[in-house]
Amino acid sequence: MSDNDTTKSSSLQGLYLTLAPVALVSGIYFLIFLVLRRSQRRWYAPRTYLGSLQESQRTPALPTGFFNWFTSFWRLPDVYALQHQSLDAYLFLRFLRMTVILTFVGCCITWPVLFPVNATGGAGETQLDILSYSNVDSSTFKKRYRYFAHLFISWIYFGFVMYLIFRECVFYINLRQAFLLSPFYAQRLSSRTVLFTSVPVALRDERRIRKVFGSAVRNVWIKRETKELDEHVEDRDKAAFRLEKAETKLIKNANKQRLKALKKGSGGSGGGGAANEVEVKANPAPGEGESGGLAARWLPRKKRPTHRTGLLGLIGKKVDSIDWCRAEIERLTPLINKEQAAYREGKPEPGPAVFVEFRTQAQAENAYQTLAHHEGLHMNRYIGITPSEVIWSSLDIPWWQLVIRRYAVLAFIAALIVFWAAPVAVVGVISNVNYLETISFLTWLQKIPDIIMGFVTGLLPSVALSILMSLVPVVMRLCAKLAGEPSNSRVELFTQNAYFVFQVVQVFLVTTMTSSASAVGKQIASHPGSVTTVLASNLPKSSNFYMSYFIVQGLTIASGVISQVVGFFVFTLMYKYLTGTPRGLFQKWANLSAISWGSTLPVYTNITVIAITYSCISPLVLGWACLGMSLFYFAWRYNVLFVTDTQIDTRGLIYPRALKQLMTGVYLAEICMIGLFGASVAPIQLALQVVFLVFTVLFHFSLNAALNPLLYNMPQSLLAEEEARQQRYDIEAAPVAPAGSAAAAAPTTKAGLPQNGPSGTASDAIEPAPAGAVLSKNSTAGSDTVAGTASNSPAMQTEKVGGAPVGLTGATSPPPPARGNILLRFLKPWVYANYESMRALIPPHANEVDFQTMYTPNVEQNAYLPPSATSEPPLLWIPEDLAGISKQEVAHTSRVIDITDVGCTLDEKNTLVWDHNAARPPIWKEEVLY
C-alpha cells in the first residue's frame, strides 16, 4: 500500500508469523510422539494389550517403526471403533471426516470461480485481502455484476451443505436403529428400562405402576430417601480407603527400616536376614497388642501413620490412623446394614423417580413413546440410561423446581455469555489493532515493525481466545447438573448445546464484530456517508483472524492430542511418585482416558460453522479449515482407536445435534451475504439471496418434521421386523421332531422349549441369535396395557407360510442393493445406507456376550437401586512384604473389613510391584453391561 494509505493490511505477516512458531512447536510434538510411541506402549497404545480390556475391545497392534505403522493405521477402518468401542466414538470420527469433506468440496466449488473474480475486482486491496469479497469494486453498476458469481456459488455450496446434513441424518437414523436393535444392545437392561421422573405421589407405589403398564413390567425400582445412608456409606468408604493408605504406609516404612538394618548387617533382634523372619500367627490371640507386633520391631509407635479428625485433617484430635479407621468401620458397618435392610423393605419415603424394567425392548419403547400421565410436566421419560451414569441427587427434585432451575440456569448462561464478551472483545480488537493507528492517541502503532505487528495480530489473540474458551465447559456441566439433568449422558448433551452457543457467540460473532469495528470505526467517523462501502470492504477482513485461529487450533491442538506430551509426563510422575497404594497403581494403569463429548464436539462444529460462513466471503478460510480439520481427524482417529475409552454413552445422540448445529453456519453465511449485497448496493443479488434464505428455512423445517421423530425413537415397524426375524431364526434352529408327535405340533424355540405366547410367538428365547436379532429374557408376548408387545398390534402381525413367519422382514427394509458407484451412494443414502445395510456393521462379537449369565438374580434385583443401598465395604488391598507385617495386618484388619495382600509386593528398593500384564488384581471386578 502507498504511504498515504490510512490503514495497511498485515494479513500475510500475521499468517506466516503465526504459522512459523506454531509449525515448529507442532513438529516437536509430533517428533516426541514418534519417539515415545515405540517404547511407551501403555500411554500411546493401551487398547492393543491392556489386561483390563476384553479381547473384543482391543485394537490390533501397529508396527513399532518410526513410519512403517502409518499404512497399517490408515487401513484400519473407522467402523472398527463402532464394533470394538462405542457408537459415540465411531460417530465422532465420522463427524470429523464429514467436516473435512465439507470444507474440501467447498474449496473445489469456490476457489476456481471466486479467486479470479475477487483478485481482479479492482478495489485495491493487498496481501490476503485481495482474494476476498472486499477487493470487488462496487463503485459502478457494471462492476457490481461480479457479485452474481458470489450469489450463485453460494447457492451451490450451501445447497451441498444442506444435502450433506440431510444425508448424514438418514445414515445416522439407520445406523442407530440397527445398532440399538442388535442383540448387543437390545438384550441390555438399560434398553428395557425406562426412567420416569416427576412421578405424582399417587403413582409412587409398585402395585400402581404395574397396574398402569400391566404384565409387560418385570421390575420396578422406586427411588427413596437415602440422605443419611449416603452420608454413612461415604464416611465408611473414606475410613476404609484411609485405612488402606495407612496400612500401606506402615508396611512400607517398616520395610524401609528393615532394609536399612539388613544393609548394615544387623537384621534386628535376631541378627539374621530374610531367612530368619518371624513366623506370623494367622489368628492372633485375643488381647495381643495390635499396635505393636512385627511392625514395632522396625518402627516405633510414634512413627505410625496418624491424622487429625477435624476439618480437612488440619485441626482436631490427633489419632492413630489404623486404630481409628478400624473403630470407625466397625461402628458404621452394622448401622449401614440396618439402613440398607430398611431401604429394601420400602420404609424410607418414596421420591419422584421410578425405574421400570420391561420384559422386552419393544415394550419398553412403547412405554417410552406413550404419554403416561394426564398432568403436564409429570412422568418425564428417559430410556437407555445405565445405573452408573445416573445422577441420583437430580432424581429427588420435584417438577416445579425443575422448571425454576431450568430457567435460572438458562438466565445464568445468557448473563455469562454477555459478560464473557468483554475479554473476548479485547481479543477481537487486538487482532485488528493495526487498523487503529490513525487514531490520534494511537499513532505510535505506526512505529511498530511489521514482524511484531504480525505476531500481535496473528498468534497472540488466537492463543488468548483458546485459553479463554477452555474454562467454559466446566461451568456448563455444573449448570446442567443444577438444572436437574438425570444422567451424565444428558449432562454431556446439555453441555454440547450450551457450549456450542457460547462458541458461536464468543469465538465467532463477538470476535468478528469487534475486529471489524476496530477496522472501520475511524473511517466511518471521518466519512459517515460512506458507511455501506466501508462495511462491505472491511467485514471480510475479519476472516484473517480466523485463518490464524485455524492454524493454532489445527496444528498445536491436533499435535497435542496425538502426542499427549503433558498428559504423558503427568501420568508418569503420578504413577511412579505420587501413587502410594496398590489400588492407586491399578486404577492409574488400567483406567483409560475418556473423551468429553460435550466440550470436544462444539469446538469442531464451530470451526466448521465459521468456515461455512466465510466460504463465499473469503474462500481462503476454507483451505485452512480443511487443513485444520484433517489434522484433527488424524489425531483423534489415532486416539479413539488406540488410546481412549468411552465412559459416557449417549447412544449416538451427539451426532444429530452436531449436524443440526451446522445449519447455524448456513444461516449466518446467508445473512452475511444479504448484508454485504445491501452494503454494496446490489439489489438484484440481495433479493435473490433473500429467496434462497426462505428456501433454507423451509428446508430446515421440513427436515426437522420428517426426521426428528426418527432421531430419538425406535420405530415399531423395525421392532416387529426384528421379532419376525427372531421367530424365523428360532424355527430354523429348532430340532426336527418325529412326525405326529406333540413336539412337532407345537412351535418351539431355539432351545427346544415350547413357545408360550399367543399365536405361538416366540417370547422366551434363551440363546443368542445372529446379529440383528432381538432377544429378551423371561419375555411375555402380549399385554393389555399401553406397553404391550409390538407384535400384538394388528399392523405388526406376521403370517406363517410354510412353517416360517413371513411379513415385515424384507418388506419394511429391503435387502441391501449391489454396491453402486460413489456418486449413487452419496445421492441415495436411503438405498445404499438403509437399515439392512447398517445391520452388516453390527459388532461381530455381539453373540459372544451371554446376558443370561451376566444378569444374575442379585445383579438384576439391585441394578437400579441407589449405590448406597447396595454398597458393600470395599476390599482393601495392601502390598506383601518379606517381614510378614502385611500378613499380620491382614489378620488384624480382617476382623472389621475384608483385606488382602495378594498380587502386590515390595521389591528390594521398597517399591510397589504388581503384574501389569494380567491386570486382574483382587479388587478387579468384571464389567456388567447394563
UniProtKB/TrEMBL annotation:
Coiled coil: none annotated. Its main location: membrane. Residues 191-393 form the CSC1/OSCA1-like cytosolic domain. It is a multi-pass membrane protein. Residues 776-796 have a biased composition (Polar residues). Residues 262-295, 745-817 are annotated as: Disordered. One of its GO terms (molecular function) is calcium-activated cation channel activity. PANTHER family: DOMAIN PROTEIN, PUTATIVE (AFU_ORTHOLOGUE AFUA_5G10920)-RELATED (PTHR13018:SF26), PROBABLE MEMBRANE PROTEIN DUF221-RELATED (PTHR13018). This is DUF221 domain protein. It comes from Niveomyces insectorum RCEF 264.
